[in-house]
Specification:
Distance between the termini: 68 Å
Keywords: Cytoplasm, Repeat
Subunit structure: Monomer.
Number of domains: 3
Protein name: NHL repeat-containing protein 2
CATH architecture of the largest domain: 6 Propeller
Radius of gyration: 28 Å
Number of helices: 6
Pfam family, one: NHL
CATH topology of the largest domain: Neuraminidase
Structural class: mainly beta
Number of strands: 46
Subcellular location: Cytoplasm, Cytosol
Oligomer: single chain
Length: about 725
């Protein structure tokens, strides 16, 4: 047994650490580690890690793994992590690099031991999402009850424990920033035990979870924002490492970066991001928190160019800043929002940054100006505004003495009496405010009074400290109603906060991770929503429903979660007819189960023949189309996708008082003499006399008999349906 846990390693490893500080050459360091291994390996009794329980759930493997059977003869790095923790995320690039250097055939295996902080993180499906989101390719075990954590007396996240080929503990590394030691310890351990013939080169059964997933138009979208006109959305398609600019109906206007991670400025087609999160748009300029590149990027939608305006591309440890943006190292920026300096003459002359990696809020000066309690600053300077850098829930009248814990969302309320930044402080499970008059940091809702207690989380509606949240990642300000909305991510809810009364209440979501649309707010369901925004006119809210890979649309007036925004590719209407249709080009809305399926008479057509479907829909009396919602038609052909080559597969329904024309043309080369085409329509309409709003659909099934004759003339087919009741 591991008598004393990690404490048993402490005396000898502490001696080694001190000796390494005095070593001047790489050879000296290697010799010191080698001698240390000789010493601990010759102990009468190994410090052994206990076997993992056979009932634990595993990811990225073909089945459960035994530490003492399957991993016998391997050097094993145990990574004790929890997926909410920014320090754990900072360690992942080091582990990726180590895996590239030493494979399981070389004798090295990394095992992620997920030891949850929050109850939500104990759920296997949520860990699966995190494994995919952060591209973890080694085995991960869900130690939901923290059994191994307690056995080894692990005390914080992240902690690495390096084991020898007998499951014998050799080293521990606590916290982030130990890359050099990690590589040194593992390489010398492999050498030491290979010389003794104790390393086995057998492969471990790896089966990556990501390989079993279907393609998706969005992958873990982290944030969403809307421009001042309400006509354009900007989506951080985080898992695809790209930024999408779309119309409000989901039609893509610009795709910037992706699908693979990278770090490149330049034209949209050649630029690259790494898990971007926060975005802010003004006119034709978008700023991006390029989180895992540790950069702030600027997108110019007119010139279609991407540039870097802050960060140097590697994780920074500086907690003060003050250099020109592109020379200033920064750490895991998670959100950005425009704001105004104290003395500036231009609007939106500051970009506020939620710097999750250093537990602070920073500022990038877009023009020269002054921050509260600060001196004059030049354009381009990037510096800390609030937060000491200590991971705390500490409020203070002096912004530099306050403490945050992984701030992940920002919203600005510039009007009086607020004039503040709202901060979603995820690891303290609070929402805080920073005054833009004097920089004072104050509590709004969640958490508790002890600034060092980061475990005061829950799901409780209430006022101030009596309200409880669980790892909130996003906030947005409703200018019309003077309310704040919170993405209470690990509670799978959207909450509303009245900052005047400090009251926090559930607005939408059941509290269970699920995916329910077309329903009232209280019946709707989300899965770890990460970001949200509200139109300036206060009508629609857009939610980045991260683990459902969707942008959800909430109507704040009718209080209906109407739909998941379809992501429509602009090329869908211009596909060369010799190319197959890409199934993942559109994320078509699902029709309600109540939608009728109308069978049309069979139609005889010829290859290449054009068809016009004339869609005529009638709403119930005293109803009107909700023009804010993306009313649309779309065409599918489940068993005959060859029919869809070169077609325009979807479009808007703008007015039901006149017919909508849906064009279609048979391919010149038909693969079958019979096929069925489905033409579907999805409408959102409201009763004039009440606030009730409906999502309704209809499907028309058109059988086709394809003759071998030459191309026929244009054929018109009427698609008629009346929605009878509300």
């Amino acid at each position: 047994m591991a008598a004393g846990g990690l404490a048993g390693l402490l005396p000898a490893q502490t001696q080694l650490e001190y000796a390494l500080l005095d070593a001047e050459t790489a050879q000296e360091k290697e010799n010191l580690v080698y001698q240390y291994l000789k010493k601990v390996d010759s102990r009468e009794r190994d410090l052994t890690v206990p076997e993992l329980g056979g009932d634990l759930q595993w990811l990225n493997t073909e089945g459960p793994i035994s530490l003492h059977k399957d991993l016998c003869g391997k050097v094993v790095v145990l990574d004790f992590f929890t997926y909410c923790c920014i320090n754990c995320l900072h360690l992942l690039p080091d582990l990726h690099a180590l895996e590239h250097q030493h494979s399981d055939k070389d004798g090295l295996i990394i095992v992620g031991v997920h030891s949850a902080k929050f109850p939500n993180e104990k759920v296997l499906d949520n860990i699966k999402s995190a494994v995919l989101r952060y591209n973890i390719v080694h085995p991960v075990v869900n130690d939901a009850d923290a059994t191994l954590w307690h056995e080894l007396e692990v005390s914080c996240w992240p902690t690495l424990v390096i084991l020898g080929p007998r499951g014998n503990m050799l080293f521990s590394l606590v916290g982030e920033g130990h890359r050099e030691k990690l590589f040194l310890f593992t390489s010398i351990t492999l050498k030491f035990y290979k010389e003794r013939g104790q390393i086995k080169d057998n492969k471990i059964g790896i089966k990556l979870y990501r390989d079993s997933l279907p393609p998706s138009p969005l992958l873990f979208p982290g944030k969403v924002t809307v421009d001042n006109s309400g006509e354009r959305l900007v989506i951080a398609d985080t898992g695809h490492h790209r930024i999408l600019v779309t119309q409000k109906n989901g039609q893509i206007l610009h795709t910037i970066g992706g699908p693979n991670s990278g770090r490149r400025d330049g034209r949209f087609s050649e630029s690259a991001f790494n898990s971007p999160q926060g975005i802010a748009i003004k006119d034709n300029v978008v700023y991006v928190a390029d989180t895992e590149n540790h950069l702030i990027r600027k997108i110019d939608l007119e010139s279609e160019m991407v540039t870097t305006v802050a960060g140097i591309g590697i994780q920074g440890v500086d907690k003060e800043g003050g250099a020109k943006g592109e020379e200033q190292p920064i750490s895991s920026p998670w959100d950005v929002v425009f704001g105004n300096s104290v003395s500036g003459t231009q609007e939106d002359d500051v970009l506020w940054i939620a710097m999750a990696g250093t537990h602070q809020v920073w500022a990038l000066m877009l023009e020269g100006g002054k921050l509260p309690k600060g001196s004059d600053l030049k354009k381009g300077v990037c510096l800390r505004f609030a937060g000491s850098g200590n991971e705390e829930n500490r409020n203070n009248a002096y912004p530099h003495k306050a403490g945050f814990a992984q701030p992940s969302g920002l919203a600005l309320a510039s009007e009086e009496p607020w004039n503040c930044l709202f901060v979603a402080d995820s690891e303290s499970s609070t929402v805080r405010t920073i005054s833009l008059k004097d920089g004072a940091v104050k509590h709004l809702v969640g958490g508790e009074r002890d600034p060092l207690n980061l475990f005061a989380f829950g799901d409780v509606d209430g006022a101030g400290i009596n309200a409880k949240l669980q790892h909130p990642l996003g906030v947005t300000w409703d200018k019309k109603r003077k309310l704040l909305y919170v993405a209470d991510s690990y509670n799978h809810k959207i909450k509303v906060v009245d900052p005047k009364m400090k009251n926090c209440a559930t607005l939408a979501g059941t509290g269970e991770a699920n995916n329910v649309i077309g329903s009232s707010f209280t019946q709707s369901a989300f899965n770890e929503p990460g970001g949200l925004c509200v139109e300036d006119n206060g009508r629609l809210m857009y939610v980045a429903d991260t683990n459902n890979h969707q942008i959800k649309v909430l109507d704040l007036e009718t209080r209906i979660l109407s739909m998941a925004l379809p992501i429509l590719n602009p090329e869908a209407c211009d596909v060369p007819d010799n190319l197959p249709v890409e199934k993942d080009k559109t994320n078509l809305p699902k029709l309600p189960k109540s939608a009728p399926n109308i069978q049309l008479p069979s139609l005889t057509v010829a290859p290449g023949q054009p068809i016009q479907f004339l869609l005529k829909l009638t709403l119930p009396p005293d109803s009107e189309l909700n023009e804010e919602a993306p009313n649309s038609w779309f065409v599918t052909a489940e068993d005959n996708t060859w029919l869809l080559q070169g077609q325009c597969l979807s479009g808007e329904i703008k007015d039901v008082s006149c017919q909508t024309i849906i064009p279609f043309q048979l391919p010149r080369s038909c693969l079958s003499t019979e096929a069925i085409l489905a033409i579907k329509a999805c409408l959102y309409y409201c009763s004039k006399g009440s606030s009730a709003c409906m999502m309704k659909g209809v499907s028309f099934s058109q059988p086709l008999q394809i003759a071998t004759t030459n191309q026929g003339s244009l054929t018109q087919v009427e698609l008629i349906h009346a929605f009878l009741t509300n």
